[in-house]
Design goal:
The complex is a heterodimer of chains A (169) and B (266). Chain A has a single domain, classed as Cytidine Deaminase, domain 2 (3-Layer(aba) Sandwich), CATH 3.40.140.10. Chain A is built from 3 helices and 9 strands; from the N terminus they run E-H-E-E-H-E-H-E-E-E-E-E. Chain A has a 9-stranded mixed β-sheet. Chain B has an 8-stranded mixed β-sheet with strand order 3-2-1-4-5-6-7-8. Chain B contains 8 helices and 8 strands, in the order H-E-H-E-H-H-E-E-H-E-E-H-H-E-E-H. Chain B has a single domain, classed as 3-Layer(aba) Sandwich (Rossmann fold). Chain B is globular and about 45 Å long. With 266 residues, chain B is α/β, with parallel strands linked by helices. In chain B, helix 2 crosses helix 7. The mean pLDDT of chain B is 92. Classes of the chains: A alpha/beta (169), B alpha/beta (266). At the A-B interface, strand 1, strand 2, strand 3 and strand 8 of A face helix 1 and helix 7 of B.
């Protein structure tokens, strides 16, 4: 099972600019990338970033134990996007360092909470969660009907240069 | 001594980048065979070849790697290209699809770069659509010899189509009348004049554009490139059309419907 995530450099920069903005009380920001998807033979998926949806300031919940906790309003707005159009949703946040990022225990827990919610509105599409660093990214995808998270194998940032980050090589 | 040592100026990781690439060549005739040969030389790791055609006598004036023996046994063009690539670099993973590319289009979905080396405007349009759907850079080469006022003119272009940037329709590379003419002549295209050296020039430019994209050796490469070849004056120039379209967002591939698999959510 292979999952590829592609997005344009322009979209990635939009995401990064938003996630860099300080929040009145949250330590970091979170957003959603609405995406289209397609199959890759024999049984993989490619997720294609289309647009970015920042979480509004008022949709963060004060919480000292995590970098950012989003409330039901943020989730409802993300689900509304996927409800309006057949879209895969990608939960995104950023770690403030260079090199390959990794999911913390909290990241894994939050993304595991997010995906079943999106499946309520788009059960037949894959969804994902990614973490950015200053110069790399990593992530997991969930294919329809499976609770098992699958590491995203390839990331392609479509710009000049064309940046391809392969996790299995 | 490494066989790619003399291209090491492309960057410390260039060899592994090229080795990991998955590149499709659609059409391995006059233009595509040059591209296949060059990709093997530069060390591309995974090459997909798509062409349903078989070699004929009239192909031998330009099909790189083809022999008289191939003509006798009516060999598939993908077989010839595969043999050529493996003879240059046996480590290259080459897969051939000897069918209409449209019947194997799903193998393009995870390609990093697609080269389009097809004759028909309709096919070039379809290929660009297929590439843009999956945010894949598409490099198209086109060459023609035509007669005007009793003289022959050789002309062609190499074009890098990048998602979000002006497309072939924006640049006027897919004239409606040419597409309509092809539709009217469907199944009776005839044999158009073709020669090897313009194909070689255009294919070299195409490989150069890919190399700029994946292993840039100086900053400031253009995001989109349209290089026009005048085969009579033997010159290549950057098209002025790009300057006119600077800062203009492509209106042909901007909606959500243009991305991903359209059948997945129907």
């Amino acid at each position: 099972m292979k999952i590829i995530f592609k997005l344009t450099e322009v979209l990635l920069q939009r995401v990064k600019e938003d996630l860099r903005r300080p929040h009145p009380f949250a330590f970091e920001r979170v957003g959603f990338i609405s995406s289209r998807s397609g199959r890759i033979p024999p049984n993989g998926w490619v997720i294609l970033g289309y647009d970015y949806h920042p979480v509004d300031d008022e949709d963060y919940v004060p919480c000292a134990s995590v970098g950012a906790l989003i409330g039901p309003g943020a989730m409802r707005k993300a689900l509304q996007v996927a409800y309006n159009e057949p879209l895969s949703m990608v939960h995104v946040h950023s770690h403030d360092h260079r090199g390959t990022p990794a999911f913390s225990k909290v990241d894994l827990r939050e993304s595991a909470r997010f995906v079943p919610n999106v499946w309520n509105v788009r059960p037949n599409l894959p969804h994902a969660a990614i973490v950015l660093s200053e110069d790399s990214l990593c992530g997991f995808g969930w294919e329809p009907g499976s609770q098992r998270r699958i590491p995203i194998g390839d990331f392609t940032i479509v710009g000049v240069p064309l940046r391809i980050i392969r996790k299995n090589t | 001594m490494n066989k790619h040592q003399r291209q090491s100026f492309l960057g410390p990781n260039s060899e592994s980048i090229l080795r990991s690439l998955r590149i499709a060549i659609v059409g391995v005739g006059g233009g595509g065979s040059h591209v296949a040969q060059q990709l093997a030389h530069i060390g591309a790791g995974n090459i997909l070849l798509l062409d349903h055609d078989r070699v004929e006598d009239t192909n031998l004036n330009r099909l790189v790697g083809a022999t008289e023996e191939d003509v006798k046994r009516n060999a598939l063009k993908v077989e010839i290209a595969k043999r050529l690539i493996r003879a240059i670099d046996s480590r290259t993973d080459v897969t051939g699809f000897d069918c209409l590319w449209q019947n194997a289009a799903d193998v393009l979905h995870d390609c990093d770069v697609i080269f389009g080396c097809v004759d028909q405007f309709t096919e070039r349009k379809q290929l660009e659509i297929a590439a843009r759907r999956y945010l894949t850079p598409y490099i198209d080469i086109g060459m023609d010899v035509h007669e005007a006022a009793g003289r022959f003119i050789i002309a062609g272009q190499t074009y890098l189509s990048m998602p979000g940037q002006p497309c072939m329709s924006c640049l006027g590379l897919l004239p409606d009348e040419a597409i309509a003419r092809e539709a009217a002549e469907y199944g009776a295209a005839g044999s158009r004049p073709q020669v090897i050296w313009p194909n070689g020039i255009l294919a070299s430019l195409a490989v150069g554009l890919m190399m700029q994209l994946v292993t840039p050796w100086f900053p400031g490469h253009n995001v989109t490139a349209l290089l026009e070849y005048d085969g009579n004056s033997q010159t290549v120039t950057r098209s002025l059309k790009l300057d006119l379209l600077d800062e203009i967002r492509c209106p042909h591939f901007c909606s959500l419907q243009d991305l991903g698999d359209p059948f997945l959510w129907s």
